Amino acid sequence: MTQAGAAQVQPVSPALAQRARAVLKSVFGYDDFRPGQDEVIAAVLNGENVFAVMPTGSGKSMCYQLPAMTDDGGMTLVVSPLVALMRDQVGQLTALGVPAATINSANTDDGNREAWRMMRRGELKLLFVSPEKLAGDNMLSALRDIGIRRLAIDEAHCVSQWGHDFRPDYRNLRQVREQLGSPQTIALTATADRTTRADIVQQLFPEEPRVVVHSFDRPNLDLRFAAKERPASQLAEFVLSHKGASGIIYTSARKRTEEIAESLSQKGVRALAYHAGLDQALRGERQDRFLQENDIVMVATVAFGMGINKPDVRFVAHADMPGSIEGYYQEIGRAGRDGLPAWTLTLYGASDMALRRRQIDEKDIDDERRRIEHRRLNAMIELCETATCRRQALLAYFGEASEPCGGCDLCRGGVSLYDATIDAQKVLSAIARTGQRFGAAHIADILTGTENEAVSRLGHDKLKTFGVGADKGKRTWLTIIRQLFATGAVGETGEAYSGYRLTQKGEDILFGREKLTLRAVAEEPRRRRDSPRTGEAASLLTEAENALFQHLRSLRLELAKAENAAAYMVFPDRTLVDMARLKPTDLYAMRMVQGVGEHKLERYGQTFADAIAAFLRENR
Predict the structure, then answer these.
(1) Residue 5: pLDDT over 70
(2) How many beta carbons lie within 10 A of that of residue 49, not counting itself?
(3) 192: pLDDT confidence band, cut at 50, 70 and 90?
(4) Any alpha helices (H) in 386-473, and if so which ranges?
């Protein structure tokens, strides 16, 4: 959908439209555009400046790659924030036969010189650079002399101080554009709320561009949240339910990546740790393994991910609560980019909420920025604790109305609300009577009437609140206390103690000036453990088709290793699924497979057709 009030995108000329679709099929191997792509591409081909907000997995890069291949002349300059992201895109494009290159500090001198030679000869269609590289000596003047047909700014949210990945060098891109002679510009991002979108437009465009905001919905992603109770076991159960698939687990601390990876490895999972504290060569080696192999689970900090465009990641888990919905959405968006089913799990607890709040309070930022970051954190906490459809709440944050999805954890299991004022008053009274300095576990012991050494030594078994909540289990009271923290009824005591204190809201509830509604606490329904086959793309195939799919995956892995390339650069899972269904045994039939363009057909088509024919003969 274009921005409200904007005129509809004019259709391109029939000849240009025909040419664009021919390129889509012959180069990229697709018969049609994904939802939303055609509108953006039409605006680009019509010469408009465009700002497009599209969900991860929707094919944003196609919106500047296809016009670059359709143009009669000139080069598209792509600004990208990470070397890994640039190298990944160049690798995919060259595998399709598209003349593309990157100039960056990680290249050899010969590699950078060859890119310049190709540019000067007019052979390059796309050049990828970082904003920092554009600030280097003579780079802009040399590019201006060569001539830039189009400027594409990827991950455009990096330009905004309100975005979750702010990069100061992105702020210079408006001046860069002017110094390049103001070429047509397209900016793209997957994660930007209204505030961030307005800032991006102001920072990058001297005049209002065509703004296209498409649905943020990723219907192929299964959304699931769970309060931390046995986090190591909860993570292990989730990962093992998708054993044999590629996945990412995000944690908030470097040490935790090592601990979780080791724990999963002991359970037979091929898990690797990744964080900024590791040697760069080791990080590169682990990233390559993740890209090249079919079943690696990467346990990482947020240092891993933006530069990874692996389409067949089947699950993303958060071992700790993300700090914002934008960050959460960006990270789960790395699953299921091929459009096939993928799964997510987010664990959260009161300690996560407290840590995130402290991090914001300790930042050296102005009061307005702090207020906005607290608002975003509160939105993330509300998503964790919501009682309504998870997907509906997520989309509402981005300003998109929707109906309950019927498929998230809350839609499947159902959650009800109840008047929790009396329960809250019991908790708040216990906190007040114990001096406002004890943690959730101790308060829950008092409420349930649990006699232990700490309760007896402190005389808390003599309090009026001792045992007033014996009708509920400790787990229930811990959940209520967490919700009270999430709603702002209690806060952290301070540095001297790691307990809870009453806030003004808490006092109002305790003394009957305010009522409180919370989520009813119920035993979590047992989740059906999926077999490894269900956790993969193969869930869409029959048993016989799945056997062929696994055979083709093994062949793909052999070819990728021989070429020292990521497996999906041979063919993504989505293409192998189509092969398993259609069973093409010659090049003519192979052309009907989604994702098989002319270059891939020439390079791999006969190998896969022969493998399918041999498999079918052996399994009659």
Answers:
(1) no
(2) 23
(3) confident
(4) 390-397, 409-413, 421-433, 440-448, 453-457
What residue type is assigned to position 376 of the chain?
A: R
The structure tokens 């055609």 sit at 38
Contact 230, 478 (CB under 8 A): no
Q: Where are the beta strands (DSSP E) in 24-80?
A: 50-53, 75-79
pLDDT of residue 460: 94
Contact 131, 170 (CB under 8 A): yes
User: Residue 166 and residue 170: Cα distance in Å, rounded?
Assistant: 8
Helix, coil or strand: residue 291: helix
Distance CA 246, CA 77 (A): 32
Q: DSSP readout, 480-511?
A: HHHHHHHHTSEEE--SS--SEEE-HHHHHHHT
Q: What pLDDT is stored for residue 486 in this prediction? A: 81
What is the structure's pLDDT at 523?
52
Percent of the residues in the chain that have a pLDDT greater than 70, as a whole number = 94
Task: Select from 428, 528, 440, 541 the least CA-distant residue to 224.
Answer: 528
Phi/psi for 285 (5° steps) reads -65, -45
Backbone angles phi, psi at 143, to 5 degrees: -65, -40
- Longest pairwise C-alpha distance within the chain: 87
Residue 365 — very low, low, confident or very high, per pLDDT cuts 50/70/90?
confident
User: Which among 608, 530, 541, 616 has a CA at the least distance from the CA of 574?
Assistant: 541
Torsion 121-126-130-131 (CA) sign: positive
Terminal CA-CA length for the chain: 49
Model confidence band, residue 268 (pLDDT cutoffs 50, 70, 90)? very high
Mean pLDDT computed over every residue of the chain:
88
* pLDDT tens profile 30-53: 999 988 899 999 999 999 999 999
Common-topology check for domains 14-213 and 221-413: yes
We find that the CATH architecture of domain 221-413 is 3-Layer(aba) Sandwich (3.40)
Q: Residue ranges of the domains in the chain?
A: 14-213, 221-413, 417-519, 541-618
Residue 73: closest CA among 178, 150, 139, 152: 150
| 393, two tokens | 């709440």
Q: Which of 98-102, 279-283, 490-494, 601-605 has the lowest mean pLDDT?
A: 490-494
Is the CATH code 3.10.25.10 the one for domain 14-213?
no
| Vertex 145: Cα angle to 139 and 147 (nearest 5) | 100
Q: Classify the C-alpha dihedral 600-336-399-322 as positive or negative.
A: negative
Q: Where does 541-618 sit in CATH, by number?
A: 1.10.150.80
Q: What single DSSP character describes residue 2?
A: B
Q: 128 - beta bridge partners?
A: 78, 102
Q: Is the pLDDT of residue 348 over 60?
A: yes
Helix (H, G, I), strand (E, B) or coil at 102: strand
Domain at 417-519, CATH class: mainly alpha
The closest alpha carbon to 609, from 596, 619, 368, 599, belongs to 596
Count the alpha carbons within 13 Å of 119 in the hemisphere toward its beta carbon: 24
Report the C-alpha gap between 114 and 35 in whole angstroms. 37
| Secondary structure letter of residue 605 according to DSSP | I
Residue 287, pLDDT > 90, answer: no
Do residues 167 and 82 make contact, with C-beta atoms less than 8 angstroms apart? no
Contact criterion met (CB below 8 Å) for 343 and 315: yes
Q: 210 φ, ψ to 5°?
A: -70, 115
